[in-house]
Amino acid sequence: MGKELEARYVATVLGELRRQDWPWTPETVYLGGGTPSGMDTAALAAWLDAIPGRPWREATLEAAPGSIDSAKAGAWVHAGINRVSLGVQSFVARELARTGRKHSAEIVAREIGVLRAAGIESISVDLIAGLPGQTEASWEESLEWLERLNVPHASVYMLEVDEDSRLGREILAGGKRYGASDVPCEDAVASMYERAVERLRCAGLERYEISNFARPGFESAHNLKYWRREPYLGFGSDAHSFDGTWRSRTAESAAEYVEHPGVMERSAADASGEPFYLGLRLTQGIFTDFSRFRIAVERFTRDGLLEIAGGRLRLTDRGVLLSNEVFAEFVTRD
Q1: 198-225: pLDDT as tens digits
Q2: What angle do CA 29, 32, 36 make, to 5 degrees?
Q3: Tens digits of per-residue pLDDT, 107-147?
Q4: What is the DSSP letter of 258?
Q5: CA 300 to the chain's CA centroid
Q6: How far apart are CA 8 and CA 287, in angstroms?
Q7: Taking the CA of residue 115 as centre, how many other CA atoms within 13 Å lie in the half-sphere pointing to its CB?
Q8: 332 pLDDT tier (thresholds 50, 70, 90)
């Protein structure tokens, strides 16, 4: 966004934070979407100063590798940030080049050192399985880097093909731009994901959610609230909130948001289906009455996608790979 819009956006979010009648004292904060690590540190500190509860149990900042120095990291810590999530995607130069990323594996390693020197030990790195041109060998290279950096949390996402990205649209259209013709097949992507699960487990990072792995005590406390359907408040463009009964969303674009801040859409939460398609993302599964979905649960259990253990319903390893198919059965249609 341009400088003028950015200034208005920062001021609008700050105004909303200051006017908020907080129904509870936040214990976690998450600054994500876009590139919040590129914000002026004084503006970021002003946002955090407007949020009660400091020092928070967890305050996460999403950061783009290649943008972190000691001054910035120190300012983040001073503002209350104690966790950083790095959007790495890959450690392989040719894969990064095709996604337009400017960092390298060496830059990521150096900046993780900068964060640790500033006092931030809770660091997460994300990888994507299924990038254009990715191979079994290049995936192993990324996993080796991840192990070498010894971070306590990692996210591994399987590339999803949809119309929300230019690559997804190109793949659906059968085109070749953006590396669409070089995207690995679904079976290869699933194999990469399973290999990541195996190697991360050996490195001490257990899967606690479909895409998230952590050492004990380093799970994302904030994101767990989403999957457990705990209340949260969102601020800024395309921000979502949940009060336990209602879900709401703000304007999608920054330009629209500064003109019309606050809630734009509000709808009743799906109290029947949400515990399934959110809670089943967690490795521990859910303990809930599934009588409404008995037929679907029995079918998926018979097909080896779900299992019941210790009174909890959870995805099997195979079910994780086909989770979207499973979740679709629990989206209630009134």
Answers
A1: 999 999 999 999 999 999 999 999 999 9
A2: 105
A3: 999 999 999 999 999 999 999 999 999 999 999 999 999 99
A4: H
A5: 27
A6: 45
A7: 30
A8: low
Q: Is 168 a residue whose pLDDT tops 80? A: no
First to last CA, the chain: 39
- Provide the percentage of residues in the chain whose pLDDT is more than 70: 93
SS (H, E, C) 122-134: EEEEEEEECCCCC
**88 φ, ψ (degrees, to nearest 5):** -80, -50
N residues, the chain: 334
Helix (H) or strand (E) holding 312: strand 312-315
Angle at 238 between CA 237 and CA 240, to 5 degrees: 115
What is the three-state SS of 30-54?
EECCCCHHHCCHHHHHHHHHCCCCC
Decide: 279 and 265 in contact? Cβ < 8 Å: no
Look at residue 96 and give its three-state secondary structure: helix
* 261: its two tokens: 């801040």
The structural domains of the chain, ordered by start, are 25-227 (3.30.750.200), 271-334 (1.10.10)
What six digits make up the tokens of 42? 């004084």
Diameter of the chain measured on Cα atoms: 58
Which contacts qualify for 234-240: CB closer than 8 Å, 24 or more apart?
235/13, 235/16, 235/17, 235/20, 236/9, 236/13, 236/33, 237/9, 237/33, 238/33, 239/33
- Distance CA(228)–CA(210), nearest Å, equals 14
Residue 197, class by beta-carbon neighbours within 10 Å (0-12 exposed, 13-18 middle, 19+ buried)? middle
CA gap 326, 301 in Å, rounded: 11
Around 116, how many Cα atoms within 13 Å sit in the side-chain half-sphere? Answer: 12
